[in-house]
Amino acid sequence: MELWCEIRTPTTPSLKGIASQIEALAPVASGYLVPDNHLGRPTVSSLVVAQEVMRQGGEPLVCLNARDRNLLGFQRDLLTAGALGVERLLLVQGDPGGPAAGELRVRSMLDEVRDRGGFKVGVTSRLGPLPAWKRDADCLFVQVGFSAAELIRWRESVEFDGAVYAGVIVLASGPMARRLAAAAPEIHIPGPLIEAVDRDPWAGIEAACDLVDSMRAAGGFAGVHLVPGVRYRAIAAGLQQLRNSPLSSLGQSHAPAGVRTQAEVDR
């Protein structure tokens, strides 16, 4: 099963943090999803970060958002992506919070990429009906969820010939979980999970590991899009442990001392 790990893109003119994320996630990651002005905040260009990912030996999946571009800007970025050797793109509308260019939509971006060729291209989906035009994409990235049963039911209801990746996010803290719930009402975070993370941040790591393992066992999913956030070292350690022991033992007890120490460092 593929595991596309989302990395945190810099909000200052520096790429120093990229290498440490890739180094920590490399033992479990198939590749690295590079966001584009995530959460409506200006960040270093996803194409520049992708170049650094490749320099570090990783494979990037580059997000390009419609919100911050017009058609000419998008065409420029496709040329730049091709010149850099980027092969995979994820087309998104863009998180609320930034200025809207108004001209571009994901559907027209997908048409433009198809006309040009040369890329493997993905789009995103909520846990609802899939618009017919999205079936023209090569892969589908599903919104983050917290219920394996809900994700599996949705997958069984959707016809899509390409690869489908379930979204899994690591809850770093109770306040972070509440902010996510307020910003994205379509994402249901179970109350008991938020309370568990309030008591012990390792609960967010355990829940993410559990869901990754459930998606691996479910079938129908090519892999997972993992959003580790600040817990990237801890989730990498947890997933490595998962390879060598049953998940039930991980989920029913605290992390081993060495792993938990790393989680504490990540707080």
What does this structure look like?
The protein is an alpha/beta fold and about 270 residues long. The protein has one domain (about 1-265): TIM Barrel (Alpha-Beta Barrel), CATH 3.20.20. Helix content is about 45%, strand content about 15%. It contains eleven helices and eight strands. The chain has an eight-stranded parallel β-barrel with strand order 1-2-3-4-5-6-7-8. The longest helix is centred in the last third of the chain and has 17 residues, at about 200-220. The chain is globular and about 50 Å long.
Structural class: alpha/beta
Unreliable stretches: 247-267
For the record, the CATH class is Alpha Beta
**Intertermini distance:** 28 Å
N-to-C SSE string, H for helix and E for strand: EHEHEHEHEEHEHHHEHHH
Shape: globular
Helix content: 40-55%
Number of helices: 11
Biggest sheet overview: 8 strands, parallel, barrel
**Overall mean confidence score, pLDDT:** 89
Kindly identify the CATH topology: TIM Barrel
Strand content: 15-25%
- Determine Rg (CA atoms, Å): 18 Å
Number of self-contained structural domains: 1
Query: What is the number of strand segments?
Result: 8
Summary of the model, kept short:
By secondary structure, the chain is of the alpha/beta class.
Topology of helices and strands:
Blueprint lengths: L1 E5 L9 H10 L5 E4 L11 H10 L4 E6 L5 H14 L3 E5 L13 H11 L3 E6 L13 E6 L3 H10 L5 E7 L4 H10 L7 H9 L2 H17 L4 E5 L4 H13 L2 H5 L5 H10 L1
Parallel strand pairs: 1-2, 1-8, 2-3, 3-4, 4-5, 5-6, 6-7, 7-8
Helix pairs in contact: 6-7, 7-8, 8-9, 9-11
